[in-house]
From TrEMBL:
Localization per record: Cell outer membrane
Example GO molecular function: fimbrial usher porin activity
Keyword Ribosomal protein: no
Species annotation: Serratia marcescens
GO biological process: pilus assembly
Gene Ontology CC: cell outer membrane
Keywords of the record: Cell outer membrane, Fimbrium biogenesis, Membrane, Signal, Transmembrane, Transport
Membrane topology of the entry: Multi-pass membrane protein
Lineage: Bacteria, Pseudomonadati, Pseudomonadota, Gammaproteobacteria, Enterobacterales
Gene3D superfamilies: 3.10.20.410
Key word Transport present: yes
Record-given protein name: Fimbrial biogenesis outer membrane usher protein
Ranges for domain PapC N-terminal: 51-194
Family that this chain belongs to: Belongs to the fimbrial export usher family.
C-alpha cells in the first residue's frame, strides 16, 4: 500500500472525542428524618397551644373569651377559696381574686398590707415603699426579685415564694394576730364505740356463763364567737355471769372540760377549766 493510500484511510476514519460522565448518587433519606426536619421548622407556639371554638357554646359563644384555656397551666380569671402558703407555711384560708395584668398574665389580687401581715418586709423593699397599703401589687416577681406566685387548682392552694432576705425575722410557727380568725358558730361531735360478748363453756361441774363489755368515748364542743367549749366523756360497762359469779361494773367520767378563747391584744390564749400543758413546751 502506498503512502497516499494510508493517509487517505486515516483521513476517512471518524474522529473520536474523549468525554467522561460522572454520575453522583444522592443518599436515600429516611422518612423519619424528613418528618423531623419538617416538624423542626414549625413554630413552637403552634405545637403547644390549643384552640377552642366558641361556636360550640351556642348563639352567645362569640361573646365568650376562651383564649385563657388555650395555654397549658394557665389560670382562669375568677375568685377561688384557697389555702395560702408563704414559703411552705400555711398563712390563711380565704377567698382570693385572680385577675389579668397589662401583659395578660393572671395574678392573685394581694395588697401590700396583706403581704406585710404575712411577714414580708415591705418597708425594706424599695419597689414597695411607695405603694398604698390597700394597693394591689399585681405581678409579685416584678416588685421582688426571685419571688413568685403559683396556684395549684387541683389542691386549691396558692403558693407564694419570697426570698428570706425580704422576710421579717419571726419565731417558727408565728402567726400575726391580724390573721387570727374566730371561725364560725358550730357544734362538734365525735365518738368511738366498741363492745364484745363471750360465752364460757361448762367445765368442772360448773354451769357455763357469759361476759360482755361496752366502751364509748365521746368528744364534743361548741363554738360561739371567740369562745370555744370542749369536753370529753368516757363510758364503760362490764358484766359477767355464770360459773358461780355474777358481776357488773359501770363507769362514767368527764374529762378535759374547758372554756377557751384568744386574746389578740396580749397575743395569748385564755383557758378556764381542766387543761394540761402540751409536751412540746419542753422541746
Amino acid at each position: 500500500m502506498s503512502m497516499n493510500n494510508k493517509m487517505n484511510n486515516k483521513m476517512n476514519k471518524p474522529l473520536r472525542q474523549n468525554m467522561s460522565t460522572t454520575i453522583c448518587r444522592l443518599p436515600r433519606l429516611h422518612p423519619l428524618f424528613v418528618a423531623l426536619v419538617v416538624l423542626g421548622g414549625l413554630p413552637v407556639e403552634a405545637l403547644a397551644r390549643d384552640y377552642f371554638d366558641p361556636s360550640f357554646l351556642g348563639n352567645n359563644g362569640a361573646a365568650v373569651d376562651l383564649s385563657q384555656y388555650e395555654t397549658a397551666g394557665s389560670t382562669p380569671e375568677g375568685t377561688y377559696l384557697v389555702d395560702i402558703y408563704l414559703n411552705q407555711t400555711l398563712m390563711a384560708t380565704r377567698q382570693v381574686r385572680f385577675e389579668k395584668d397589662d401583659k395578660g398574665k393572671v395574678n392573685p389580687v394581694l395588697t401590700k398590707q396583706e403581704l406585710e401581715n404575712m411577714g414580708v418586709a415591705v418597708s425594706r423593699i424599695p419597689t414597695m415603699k411607695a405603694l398604698a397599703p390597700e394597693k394591689n401589687v399585681g405581678n409579685l416577681s416584678a416588685l421582688i426579685p426571685s419571688a413568685s406566685t403559683q396556684l395549684d387548682l387541683s389542691q386549691l392552694r396558692l403558693n407564694i415564694s419570697v426570698p428570706q432576705v425580704d422576710m421579717n425575722s419571726r419565731a417558727g410557727g408565728y402567726i400575726d394576730p391580724k390573721l387570727w380568725d374566730e371561725g364560725i358558730p358550730a357544734a362538734l361531735f365525735n365518738y368511738n364505740l366498741s363492745g364484745s360478748k363471750n360465752w364460757l363453756k361448762q367445765q368442772d361441774g360448773l354451769d357455763g356463763g357469759q361476759s360482755q363489755s361496752v366502751f364509748a368515748l365521746l368528744n364534743g364542743g361548741f363554738n360561739a364567737g371567740a369562745w370555744r367549749l370542749r369536753s370529753t366523756m368516757s363510758y364503760s360497762d362490764y358484766a359477767t355471769s355464770g360459773m358461780g359469779m355474777d358481776v357488773r361494773t359501770r363507769s362514767t367520767q368527764w374529762r378535759n372540760t374547758y372554756l377557751q378563747r384568744d386574746i389578740q391584744r396580749l397575743r395569748g390564749e385564755l383557758t378556764l377549766g381542766e387543761a394540761s400543758t402540751g409536751g412540746n413546751i419542753f422541746d
